[in-house]
Specification:
11 helices; alpha+beta; Creatine Kinase, Chain A, domain 2; three-stranded antiparallel beta sheet; 317 residues
């Protein structure tokens, strides 16, 4: 693009790059929304962060913009670590379908934008791990069974040895609230895009098999303890009046485990997954406007409990 990478851009160059990329997006036939971070409130910025649309570091510098589709299944960060980072998101293990959607947008943008590339290195990026295809294929997995079975450390080690990067979704490092982990390829070079998708998909299925084995083992050896944890979680979530984000995530994780193992017939997995997102602090504060970002923590915890009760009863939240 004839520009240095974002860490070395001046304020004026950042604005120029942002304008060029936004202009390219506006030429696309897709119905996409452009959001300038300096035009929205800090609370709205945090909601984008909680929905995994932007990164924490993306909030700290000027001349940033985000592009999102109506269904939130496609997004783009402008001037993060790279000039442009496209992302696709969809429920289920459907890496190929998500890739096709992102790849289509990428090809259309390339008609207006000139990407930095070299014949021997592929696409050039600020990180060596991203040089090559520039593709990061990620899958979110719920490893609650292996956490309870005491096998999570072993599985994380195996995943690393297989060339996967595993990090907690709600916490950095090896631990994660709710036992939800993000699994992705460590490097973007040496394989084609589809080879990366196939490899990540194959390895993720192997990790999912380990999780199923742990759940089967728990049912055989610790069924009463498992049932107690699941139904205690359901009871607290249905009747509590104050609940923190941390506790809500942990209890919803236990509830999700019980549903997926057939210990509970309702609510649905989709409902619990939605509540995991909606119970985060900024989403609760949004419902409390005009108090918004200055809302008292106790009121946030009270409103969260109310929202969870409504959601578990099948009401709109």
């Amino acid at each position: 693009m004839d520009h240095v990478f974002p860490p070395h851009l001046s304020r004026e160059e950042e604005k120029l790059v942002c304008d060029e990329i936004v202009s390219a997006f506006r030429k696309l036939p897709d119905d996409l929304q452009v959001i300038y971070l300096d035009k929205i409130s800090p609370l709205e910025q945090k909601i984008l962060l909680e929905r995994n649309v932007i990164s924490q570091s993306f909030l700290t510098a000027p001349e940033k913009a985000v592009v999102v589709s109506d269904d939130w299944g496609l997004s783009a960060m402008i001037n993060e670590e790279e000039h442009l980072r496209l992302a696709g998101m969809q429920s289920g293990l459907c890496l190929e379908e998500v890739y096709q959607r992102v790849d289509r947008i990428d090809s259309l943008l390339e008609e207006s934008l000139h990407y930095a590339a070299a014949l021997d290195w592929g696409y050039l990026n600020t990180s060596l791990a991203s040089t090559g295809t520039g593709l990061r294929a990620s899958v979110m997995l719920h490893f609650q069974g292996m956490v309870l079975d005491g096998k999570i450390d072993w599985v994380l080690k195996v995943a690393s040895e297989l060339g996967l990067q595993v990090k907690g979704y709600w916490a950095e490092g090896d631990n994660s609230l709710g036992s939800v982990y993000q699994v992705s390829n460590q490097h973007a070079s040496g394989l084609s895009e589809r080879e990366i998708l196939i490899r990540v998909g194959k390895l993720v299925r192997k990790l999912a098999d380990y999780e199923r084995a742990s759940r089967d083992e728990l049912l055989k050896k610790k069924k009463q303890e498992l049932e107690d944890q699941v139904f205690r979680a359901l009871g607290i979530l249905k009747y509590c009046r104050l609940i923190s984000s941390r506790e809500a995530i942990e209890l919803l994780s236990s509830l999700r485990l019980g549903i997926s193992m057939g210990l509970l017939s309702e609510p649905s997995l989709e409902t619990v997954t939605a509540l995991l997102i909606l119970s985060q602090k900024a989403h609760i504060q949004k419902n409390l406007e005009p108090s918004g970002d200055d809302t008292d923590n106790k009121l946030v915890d009270y409103t969260r409990a109310q929202m969870l009760r409504r959601g578990l009863e099948g009401q709109d939240v």
